[in-house]
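User: Structure please.
Assistant: Input sequence and predicted structure:
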Amino acid sequence: AGVQDRAREFAALESIGMTRRQTVQMLALEGLGYALLSLAAAMVISLPIGYGVFQALNSYYVNYYAYPWAQSLVLALLITVLCASVPVLLYRLTWKDSLVDQLRETD
């Protein structure tokens, strides 16, 4: 569920004492968890497939396979930053009502 779908849940947590800072930290950590799981799955899947494609298309008989680690690291950092920051930004953009209004909302 997205941040907007969980607004009522966040309001309930804040009503029992969770601060907005703790909510933001929770969202950032959830995003980091999703990023790490996604990156791990991508590596497990992409390494053997990339090597298989290299072998299948190796018409020049190149003797080595070099994985693009630098580009992958840059992309992994970008994905990690996006996964950690987008939920926090959405939370800050959608949290405009008072706590009571958030709890009353039924959507």
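The mean pLDDT is 85.
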